[in-house]
Amino acid sequence: MQVRIGDSVIELVLGDITEEKTDAIVNAANSQLAGGGGVDGAIHRAAGPTVIQQTNELYPQGCPTGEAVITEAGRLKAKYIIHTVGPVWRGGKHHEEADLRSAYRNCLELAARHGCQSIAFPAISTGVYSYPLDLATEIAISEIRQFLTDSSAPILIRCVLFNEGIYGAYSRVLEQ
Ligand code: AR6
Prior knowledge:
This protein is an alpha/beta fold. About 40% of the residues lie in helices and about 20% in strands. It is globular and about 40 Å long.
């Protein structure tokens, strides 16, 4: 499914983000940038050891929640990996929404600063970090829409969704 916003496109696909050929793919990392399970584990396994070497060298302090850092992409087809840290869901009253919005926005701004014309996102925070899927989806789509509305350069944003349930949630919100 695709929606056009000006000259840009938001696209939803079902699949594995490690196979994407977009200029950048986003990793849902932890604040130590230490690797982990979920999409983080899959990305590091597919990209190989140079990525964790780079995060250790360039970002020894890790990455705070809501921020984003960039590395090359090792063996992946993408050029860059943007590592962001979404919030852990703790009931919704611990600035989870602001942190998740800021994670999306910082990824998009970092990608733009590196000249990326296409970027693939997973559903940040909706796995191990337990953010309720419908709420996370609203935030993802609204931040992406806002960024595309504000920016002049055309860009493709692809949300790569790991199962039918997540795809369904995204398509319902994008259709609105
Ligand atoms: N491609 C696309 N999406 C994926 C893939 C994949 N290969 N694998 C999983 N997902 P999660 P979080 C989806 O848990 O909630 C890690 O241990 C998954 O279905 O990967 O932000 C980190 O190191 C879900 O919808 O990330 C952190 O400690 C989404 O990706 C912590 O988990 C995010 O799930 C981050 O938790």
